[in-house]
Amino acid sequence: MGGSGLITRSAGLNNMFLKRKGEKIVFKKTWLMISIFVILSVISACSTSKEGEKEKSDELTYATVKDINDMNPHLYPGSMSAQGMVYESLVENTEDGIKPLLAKSWDISEDGKAYTFHLREDVKFHDGEPFNADAVKKNFDAVQKNKEKHSWIKLSTKIVNVEATDEYTVKLTLSEAYYPTLEELSMTRPYVFLSPKDFKDGGTKDGVKGFHGTGPYKLTEHKVDQYAIFKANKDYWAGAPKIKKITAKVLPAGETTLLALQKGEVNFTFTDDWGTDSINVEGMEQLAKTGDYQVVRSNPMNTSMIVANSGKKDSPVHERSVREAIWHAIDRETISRDIFSGTVKAADTLFASNVPYANVELKKRDYDVNKAKEILEEAGWKNSEKGTAMKKEGKPLTMKLYYDSTSPSQKAQGELIQDSLKKIGMNLELVGEESSSIANRRTTGDYDLLFNQTWGLAYDPQSTISAFTSESSYLHATEGIPNAEQLYQKIEDVLTSTDEDSRKALYKDILTTVHEEAIFIPITNGNVTVIAPKSLNGISFEQTQYELPFEKMYFE
Amino acid sequence: MKVVKNLYRDKLGRASFIFILLVMLLGVFAPFIAPHDPLAVDMKLRYAAPSWEYLLGNDHLGRDILSRMLYGIRPSILWVFVALILSVCIGAIMGFIAGYFRGNVDAIVMRICDVMLSFPIYVITIAIVAILGPGLGNILIAFILMKWAWFARIIRTSVMQYVELDYVKYARAIGRSHIHIIARHILPVTFSDIAVTASSSMGSMILQISGLSFLGLGIKAPNPEWGMMLSEAREVMFTRPELMIAPGVAIVIVVLAFNFLSDSLQVALNPQLRKPKNRSGLKPFKTVLNEKEVAK
Amino acid sequence: MGVFIVKRILITVPILLAVSFLTFVLISFSPMEPAEAILRAQEVPVITDELIEQTNEKLGLNKPFIIQYIDWLMDCLQLDFGDSYVKNESVWQLVGPSFFNTLKLTVVSSLVIILFSVLLGVICALQEGKIIDRILRTVLFVLTAVPTYWLGAILILFFSVKLDLLPTSGMSGMKSYILPVIATSLGYIGIYFRTIRSAMLNNLNEDYVIYGRSSGLSEKKITMHILRNSLQVSISIFCMSIPIILGGTVVVENVFAWPGIGSLSIEAILSRDFPVIQAYVLIVAVAFVIFNMISDILNAALNPRIRNDNS
Known about the structure:
Mean pLDDT of chain A: 85
CATH class of the domain at 92-272 in chain C: Mainly Alpha
CATH architecture of the domain at 92-272 in chain C: Orthogonal Bundle
Helix content of chain C: over 70%
CATH architecture of the largest domain in chain A: Roll
Radius of gyration of chain A: 30 Å
Low-confidence stretches of chain A: 1-28, 43-55
Order of helices and strands of chain C: HHHHHHHHHHHHHH
Number of helices of chain C: 14
Number of domains of chain A: 4
Helix content of chain A: 25-40%
Number of strands of chain A: 25
Oligomer: heterotrimer
CATH superfamily of the largest domain in chain A: Dipeptide-binding Protein, Domain 3
Distance between the termini of chain A: 67 Å
Structural class of chain C: mainly alpha
Strand order of the largest sheet of chain A: 10-11-12-1-13-23-14
CATH topology of the largest domain in chain A: Dipeptide-binding Protein, domain 3
Largest sheet of chain A: 7 strands, mixed
Largest interface: B-C, 56 and 74 residues
Distance between the termini of chain C: 11 Å
Structural class of chain A: alpha+beta
Shape of chain A: globular
CATH superfamily of the domain at 92-272 in chain C: MetI-like
Radius of gyration of chain C: 24 Å
Mean pLDDT of chain C: 84
């Protein structure tokens, strides 16, 4: 380089020549820089890629579209599947009925008003506090203090008193006999138990200090919107679970989940408690074909449906004929066959006939676009111009259908229904929102139509039906029908009835009314789908779509 | 019409211009050209592979992708173009007012511009979508609301240069009306600056607006739009990555054409740019400022 | 120089005020009544007019608009943006961490942008008109036209799925930065590299280079001169790219599930969580203004001509 400097000096004014010389020098340097950089980056890429996740045989990482959120078990924003791992209830709802869990046995008084629970004596909260009658009472009291929030669960309105009669015996007194008491006590929330040490000001409604339950897993780390780690509870009363660590990883988009599964960044996923099936069936099949994964489906668990808001007076959906027309315009067979590749069955009624009390004769409304049009025309809706929405008294037949923006299958169904409805002159506007916003609309009644699902075998029919009267659930949807008051009375009666026959008769009436009024437009009978590593055994299901018994799973 | 001649001489510029014109015409006449109804659902054709009848195949509802691409030109390009023209018009009016009259009017307009330019475009669009709800119309409103300030600023600078020219001063001195001066003496000369700025914005606007549709904030189902088609394709990108090709390539090519055209326009209107022998040290910095706009 | 800085800061203050006011006004157009939304968020079962009135009273929503704005501004200055309507947390708890995640992505991307823009810009300038210059220019020009989300998806398909080298999404360790940073920077590199290239070309023809050569300055020194001058442009680009990227990461964050403020804002829109949206708009706009100010000051410090031009 010194040489070239010399040349420069001596060559004097020959600019062109100089420029080229200078270029070469800089050029050499740059190439050197580039090569160093490239080599460095390649090395770093290689070295980092080698330390990639090793598959440990006692860990699961599952993908979830949303953060697990607030784990307070006495409130509702949290993820139920996560809460289900950490907290437990007194009794458990299984295929064979109610079974003991934290209570080893119980007695029910003659009049059905008093329940006495005998607790297990070998249970401790995750923070080491003993689980005893006192803890049970404190938890019940904390829930009852916030009664309004739990109005959807009718038991909360019936509990009069909770009393610890000795260290391991609790007596629950109700204002009147209430037949689904044990079912409602078995639910994921709110009647589950948090260490009283975590209470704030003696309660839980204003937040809690920790999340120590009695369940098989402890929450050990939570990074909002990224991940949450659950570790096996070594001292779990039923024996420490075999899967030692479960990570819930937030992956908002379905296709990313699929890629992450294929790459092993996560190795487990399931249709989660928000009812979101973020992964399409085709993708699952492809994944199963790789040989690393298995797809396990539960029996039909619930019904996917469109809820029509009869209570919205200024919307066409207030009219029964419009709701019926929508019912007729849904091609359930195509949805089940093409969108779900036949993994779910078309549903014609709100509850499948295997749901208790739901084996009721109801008029089937087939997919029949012409019939739908006829119904509308009979009701006075008219087509003014071809290709535009029908009108009645100057009001166009236009409605909004809300779907969960994280669920591509809901969007596809929506588009399909939108297309058939357009043919008969009904305009459907599709709006995708977060599930929380949709739940908010359901509560405030600010919607025409929205996608929803029944709550699963443990909840159907009693809880779903009692939710017809609850503002936080389906009150707005049901309140617009002519005989709403009568319906609500019947619901009240059926839940407190002690006589099996009258219960049957009342359920029949209730189910017939909501069917006739076409408030809940069924689409398919859904199930819980799990994608898991091939070597994972012991995958089973609860009686609800909201939880999975992780503690029963193990690797071969 | 030296400009046209210059532009015509530039092969790439000419090709881009013709291509853009063609694409726009395809969009305008989509109903006559599209082989199928872009909204016609046929579940039997769900994800069907390309065939002679459906040249680009079918989407998740069995709709014809080619027809959807053609109809998609309307929101993806034509409407963006309309929004651009509108914001350029508003920007031009404000820029002329500020640059010509100066004084307090200028100060006020420029302060408004400062505030508008303090919001990144995505941010303000998100705010507006949050209030008015998702929809292409709302996004375009947000763009018009924001972009005019950018144009106003550039046009003002350009106007200010010409106001100082002797013949404008002369016209003022002999008492010509302001409108006359602006229309006769300033508008024609600033037009080139306006054209260059506007054309360089088009590519970035197409990218930004399709990006918002991709996020689900733009056009509503079932209407076709390229960004939205990509977002639908993304849902199955693991199983059917080929669905991402058509809309993606279309966006790239159209944006590329606009960028080429903008470059050519710049050269055509300002031929000395061909030789990068600019001596001012300030120039590169200004270019940077200009290119800020191109950034996605 | 000091005068310039003071002036620049003084201009920024009213702009910040105007930005905050506009944000406040914008969100007050939101279709949800705040009192009702807050009560809903607290899951109060029966919402009466009386209760709404009480809440309005408590939150000062009955006060005149301008007082409400001042109250709100004061709260914001203490990072108190209220509570989320949807999540059981304060807005800052949500927005704060995600803002820093976005900032991390932004800074890393800016560094990559500047590194490659300078590298490629210098190469092309020195090889002006030759094959490397042409190829690089064409490739980079094409890249400016590629939508980030499409590029992101392709990168994921190729590097994460086909080659299985990098994680598909999320923010977990250094490796997860690579793809989002590439997707963010490529387009900008295409833009800024052109600037550097033309700056370099200008420099090569600058008087001082020619003069320096003719007066026998060593090539090494001249190269240093040129590089130093180019450094100026690089720093101004770096400073300017930070605010621009910061305001535009929404799409990239969405594609790569990056837990940043852009993802958060989309989630907030879809769940109609207005306090979060308000905080998002305010924080990003303020950051944008401040980074722009810093970049102007740095530019002025490096280039005296601008300083004089502005004053």
